[in-house]
Amino acid sequence: MLASWALKTQTSYNAHLKKWFSYCKSRNIKNPYDASFKEAAEFLSYLFYQEQQKHGVIAATRSALSAILPLREGKMFGNDPTVQKILKGIFKLRLTLAKYTVTYNQSYIDSLPPNSILLISGIYQIAC
Fold it and tell me: How far apart are CA 68 and CA 4, in angstroms?
């Protein structure tokens, strides 16, 4: 199964699965590859409440767990309705901030002279 994953996927999943294995050991979950959906869902909650992880990290963890946990009633872990509700709740409770908080004024930029004129006037100002 690992051979089918792209290198970036392997690297990403490895980090999340290490945490999962450590969590399983601390909770006496005997086989991390055969844990119940409830145990895995509790792990996602643990990441949110105890480790204060963001939605993106938890979503990536869900994907990693989906890759290793057995199907339940024909569904992967990440497609389970309860798991989907957990992720939706996490998204709503801890909204992600916009990457950029400053925007530019397009009308101001449009009002500027062409770059060639700006460049010449900039060189003139430096020389004076």
Answer: 13
Query: Which residues sit opposite 75 in a β-bridge?
Result: 72
Q: What is the pTM of this model?
A: 0.71
Are 52 and 84 in contact by the 8 Å Cβ rule? The answer is no
Structural domains of the chain, with CATH: 2-93 (1.10.150.130)
Chain Cα centroid distance, residue 114: 41
Let me know: does 82 contact 68? Beta carbons within 8 Å.
no
Give the pair of three-digit tokens for residue 83.
């798991």
CA 65 to chain centroid: 14
Q: What is the pLDDT of residue 120?
A: 64
Extract the residue ranges of the chain whose pLDDT is less than 50: 127-128
Q: Give 48: exposed, middle or buried? Use CB within 10 Å, 0-12, 13-18, 19+.
A: buried
Query: According to the model, what pLDDT value does residue 102 have?
Result: 74
Closest CA relative to residue 20, chosen from 66, 54, 81: 66
